[in-house]
Amino acid sequence: MKIGYTLMTEQAGPNDLVRFAAGAEHAGFDFEVMSDHYSPWLDEQGHAPYAWSVLGAVTQSTERVELMTYVTCPTMRYHPAVVAQKAATIQALSGGRFTLGLGAGENLNEHVVGRGWPPANVRHDMLAEALQIIGGLFDGGYFDYEGKHFRVDSAKLWDLPERRTPIGVAVSGSQSIRRFAPVADAMIAVEPKAELSSEWDATKLGPPSRKIGQMPVSWGTDRDAAVKRAHEQFRWFAGGWKVNAELPGPAGFAGATQFVREDDVAGSIPCGPDVEPIVAGLREFEEAGFTDVALVQIGGDQQDGFLDFAEKELLPALRG
C-alpha cells in the first residue's frame, strides 16, 4: 500500500501548503493529494486558497511524490474543458506525476456561481458528460461536444503532457461504480468498504486498478488536546458524504454537527501520540482492497510536528 499525505486547503494558507508539500516528500510519503474547495466546512478551519495555483507551486517544490486532486468537481464552478486544460498543465509541470481526481461535488463549493444545486442523479449525469469532454481533450486535436449539460466548441489543449493524465473518480456505492468504473483509471472513496473495491474491479474488468482512500488523524503529544482539535475542526466528518454534499455553507455544517460530542469524534478518528491506532485504521483500508491511502493531519498548526512524527515513527512502522 502507498501512503499519502493530504494538503488540506481548508486549514492552511497557500504558502504553508507549499512548504508542507516539500516537508511531506522529505518525510517519505509516496504521494500527496490536495482538496479543491471554495470554502472550508467550518469557520474554525479558516482557509480556502485556490487549489490549482497551489498545485502549480507544489510541482516545483517537490521532485518525487505523485500529486492528485482529491477531488475536483468539473461541472459547475469549473467547466470541464477548463479542468482538462488545468490538469494537462499540472501534469506537464510535474513531469508526469499528476492524477486528476474528480467527483460530483458539494453544494458548499459549487453554489457560489449562482446556478443552484441539482439533485444527485443530475450531478452524476453532469459528471459523466464532463468525463467525456476531458477524455476527448486528452486525446489531442480539436474537440467539439454537445450534450444535455455542456457544449464545447472547437477546443484544443495546446500543451499536452507526454504522459496522459490518469483520472480517478469518487464513488460511494453501486450506482456510481457502475457508471464510472468503466471510464476511470482509479477509484476514490473515503470509507474502507470491501464491497466498493470488489464491485469496482468486477465492473471495470481487466487488471485491478488503483483504489485510493483517505483517513483523518489528529496526532499530538497531548491526547486530550488532539481530541478537542479533531472535534473543533473535523466534526463535520460525522455527517457522511450524502448529507455533507447538500449543506450550503459553514453555518449549515455547524448547525448539523452541534450535537456531535468529542467522544464521538475520538471514536472514529485516531487521536493522540500513538502509532498503533493509525496503523489499525490503515489496516482496515488494506483489508478492504485499497491500494493507496492519504492521511489527513487535522490542524494547520500541527503539520510540522506530524511530519516529523511520520518520518521518524509512523512511516517506518507502516513499512515494517
Automatic annotation (TrEMBL):
Residues 1-291 form the Luciferase-like domain. It comes from the Bacteria. One of its GO terms (molecular function) is oxidoreductase activity, acting on paired donors, with incorporation or reduction of molecular oxygen. InterPro entries: F420-G6PD/mer, F420_G6P_DH-rel, Luciferase-like_dom, Luciferase-like_sf. Gene3D superfamilies: Luciferase-like domain. Keywords: Oxidoreductase. Pfam families: Bac_luciferase. This is F420-dependent oxidoreductase, G6PDH family. It comes from Amycolatopsis pretoriensis.
